[in-house]
């Protein structure tokens, strides 16, 4: 098990090295040692890139094969000391932790409310006479609504009360 893990880690190192070489070559572009004439230099640069991409592909295949030989972990991975993140003593990190937790809680609430809204809206299908032609001619439905401002304010206040951490 340890030897296969060592082989997998070594192949990760080789893959990272070949990726670094590829990005380094791409960032350098066409160099003067490729030649003076533009067409010849571009061809040499493309050949060098093809060689690096082939090398990258070989290292990727080697990594895939070494990872395939690894056995899956026996159970869930223990998180060890990650529970102590809330006890961080550095003020910058402590100041970031509380808003992060609050945003996760707020996102979970929004997700829960949206699931409830989907359940309610899926019960009310709007397939009555709007999609099919009826035998009788009906009057044209109005497309605008005149709602008093108090009703709109009441609706916004009720939404604001449903989600206390969100300002509407």
From TrEMBL:
GO molecular function annotations of the record: transcription coactivator activity
Keywords: Nucleus, Transcription, Transcription regulation
Subcellular location: Nucleus
GO annotations of cellular component type: mediator complex
Biological process terms in GO annotation: regulation of transcription by RNA polymerase II
The organism's place on the tree of life at top rank: Eukaryota
Main location: nucleus
Entry annotated with the keyword Transcription regulation: yes
Similarity section: Belongs to the Mediator complex subunit 27 family.
Protein name in UniProt: Mediator of RNA polymerase II transcription subunit 27
Organism name: Cacopsylla melanoneura
Upper lineage: Eukaryota, Metazoa, Ecdysozoa, Arthropoda, Hexapoda
